[in-house]
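Example record

The entry below shows one chain as it appears in the dataset: sequence first, then structure tokens.
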Amino acid sequence: MDNDASRWFFCATCACFVCCMLVVLVSVVGGGSSADDAACFAPQSLVGIGAGEHGAEGVDAAVSCAGDAVIVATADGMAATWTFDNGRYRQHPQVLVSANATSVSVTCDGAVAAVGGAGVVDTFTATSRNVSAPFVHRQRIASADATFGRLVQLSCERLFLGVAAERAAHVFAFNGTAFAPHWTVSVHAPIASLALSCTGNHLVVGHAGAVTIYNVADNTTRIISEKTPSFGTSVAVAGTAAEVVAVGAPNATGVRIFAMLNGSYQERAALHETSQAGFGASVALDATAAHVLVGAWSAYRRPGNVTMYAWNPLHDRFVLARVLHDPELGRGVAVDRAGSVVVAPAGGTATLRLAEIVCSTRAECPRC
């Protein structure tokens, strides 16, 4: 492996690996001493919206870099937000209404949210971090294409907004007042997945059998392909310039992870769980690609799962950290920057549960 890439890739220090593994495992198990309880807590279900009259399954979720702000889109076309407050995630008072919301995203600081739906994308701004304070609607970006807004991604460090239609991908840049058109590309096949790098300069688009990485800054492209129709169903990126790309191919090759080495993307890991139907339906990476979250979900074959992996620098590979077995999980997954807060939309039964959170909200994992 290239020396510079290896220093950055997968957070290669034993100390960080041990700490981050404990963050994941303790948070899932819960319990422990009083000191442990102060830093960690058991999984929390996000239930209902508003007074509960709009209860529906969750279809997409996003989480802020620090893990203290969460947004979930529901099957009834709405979105709801939560803020970590006094040891629990507490819901903001109002729903974020868009046109049949199917996708959500949030900025690194949790202050700006985007909700994509049928032909529109709506953006909202938090008036404060107080859980009782509402999000304020700021802008609606509309298109004559009814598929516009099916996928949305906000950049984490700069205010760029990626939006997918069925056969086109767009990037909007914040000009100080509103998001304005910045870059557009047509795609030859229906877009299945979308990811945006932290800087907003790299847009990753998944479609049948291929993933295209667009460098918006210099208008260059790189393509990762596989002779598998489901390859590209899900994508995730890590690094400021999409140095690491994870690609899901459910019911086929699972999840493959590629790193930019010597000017090209090379496979660095492959994850596959043959016992999980739909493994790779969703995927998420933390900021350094030290943790990978993989959702297994199928509308026809249950149960669903979310599988957590952590990079082991001693063995130069990902190791299994935990599997969340739940028939309602797997269609989506999100993780915070440190890999310590995992949010999984919940759906498939007539319950009011919208998402499941597994986290250690204040444990200090060394930055690498």
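Notes for this example: The domain at 3-359 is CATH 2.130.10.10 (Methylamine Dehydrogenase; Chain H). The helical segments are 3-8, 14-29, 34-39.
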